[in-house]
Write a structure and sequence with these properties.
This protein is α+β, with helices and mostly antiparallel strands. Helices cover about 15% and strands about 35% of the residues.
Length: about 290
């Protein structure tokens, strides 16, 4: 007999997701400056990454590097390689970027490298990203490295400066790369109300919006080898639309379903929820 589940981007790894009671270890975030002039940016970036990744609740815990850490953990290592604000010179003389001298006075740019390692220190993913902000806006004191010691991406003038927005764009690319390597939490239907509306365990905390589309997909369990069963998607059986959003849950209405599947059938089986555009990923794409 076919089983019900909602479509998930990595079906083979779905059981490992923290949101489904999986086995992801804690994540350690380690941000380092490539030189003296990037120490302020490194501090702001580490603060933001720890806050964002803790809020997303993909990993059971998120730590800064140092101190007593769990023996088993994943590590996200990020290095702030350099930055430029307009035609400013001398901030990192050893760093050469293509087209550097062509930057306009109102352009800010930040370069990061990242490395994701498993619990044994083995490389999972690595890369280099750049964030660039060309909108006119305040730079002021943030155009000089000596003024970045108290910089924060979470609030204040730096967060809305050109340099702050450039750093946020680069940081968002790092987080998206992390989530490409590890599946996001599964969303589940936790209740069906008397009037037929569906309650999903994802709300404002993870970025759900009113009007989001959710899909139920029929899955077929297939035994690939003795003891190894994988869920293969067959077809969508229902579409839901979010109508109310609370902090930790949302309420959706059924807009379409196959007639033979009644809404209350969902509660009789293990259910996963797929958003047309996952709210966690959407949050970071909006930063780009």
């Amino acid at each position: 007999m076919a089983a019900f589940a909602l479509a998930f981007p990595h079906p083979a790894q779905a059981d490992d997701a923290q949101g489904s009671g999986g086995r992801y270890p804690p994540l350690v975030v380690e941000v380092e400056p490539a030189g003296l002039f990037t120490s302020g940016l490194a501090g702001a970036l580490e603060e933001a990454l720890v806050f964002w990744l803790s809020r997303d609740r993909v990993f059971p815990a998120v730590y800064r590097a140092g101190g007593d850490l769990p023996a088993e953990h994943l590590t996200l290592r990020v290095s702030v390689e350099g930055y430029r604000v307009g035609r400013s010179e001398g901030m990192l003389p050893q760093l050469s970027w293509d087209g550097l001298l062509k930057l306009e006075p109102h352009v800010a740019e930040v370069s990061l490298t990242y490395r994701i390692e498993d619990g044994q220190g083995r490389l999972v993913e690595q890369g280099n990203v750049r964030g660039k902000e060309s909108r006119r806006g305040e730079v002021g004191e943030f155009d000089h490295p000596a003024e970045l010691a108290q910089a924060s991406l979470l609030a204040g003038g730096f967060a809305e400066s050109r340099l702050g927005r450039a750093l946020r764009k680069a940081a968002a690319q790092v987080v998206l790369a992390l989530y490409q390597s590890f599946p996001l939490p599964e969303r589940r239907v936790v209740e069906i109300l008397a009037d037929g509306r569906v309650v999903v365990d994802a709300g404002e905390r993870v970025g759900v919006w009113q009007g989001d589309n959710l899909y139920l997909v029929l899955y077929q369990p297939v035994e690939l080898s003795p003891g190894r069963v994988e869920m293969i998607p067959l077809r969508p059986i229902a579409r839901l639309v979010v109508r109310q959003v609370k902090r930790d849950y949302s309420i959706a209405v059924v807009k379409w379903r196959e007639r033979r599947y009644l809404p209350r059938d969902i509660l009789m089986r293990e259910v996963r929820v797929e958003f047309k555009d996952d709210p966690i990923l959407r949050r970071y794409r909006r930063m780009l």
